[in-house]
Amino acid sequence: MDEHDLRQLVILARGRLEALGGPRFEPASGEPSVTYRQQAVRCNKPTCTRCPHGPYWYAYWREDGRVRSRYVGKNLPQ
Known about the structure:
This protein is α+β, with helices and mostly antiparallel strands. The protein has one domain. The protein is about 20% helix and about 35% strand. It has one helix at about 5-20, and strands at about 35-40, 55-65, 65-75. It has a three-stranded antiparallel β-sheet, covered by helices on one side. Strand 2 (about 55-65) and strand 3 form a beta hairpin. The two termini are about 25 Å apart.
């Protein structure tokens, strides 16, 4: 894993721990806070009759002035 992937992993892990009711971590200088939300997604296949699919969980945070997101899964990990 490169540095960017490791930073994303730390951000997601801290956000997940807080979502589980664990201790509140204050972000280090420049480190974003993470929010989780569910969203339905479209597969855009012309023959699909079941769109949208989901809902699926996504993590969102701000990094370098942009909103970043990462797919978490069908269910939030316990």
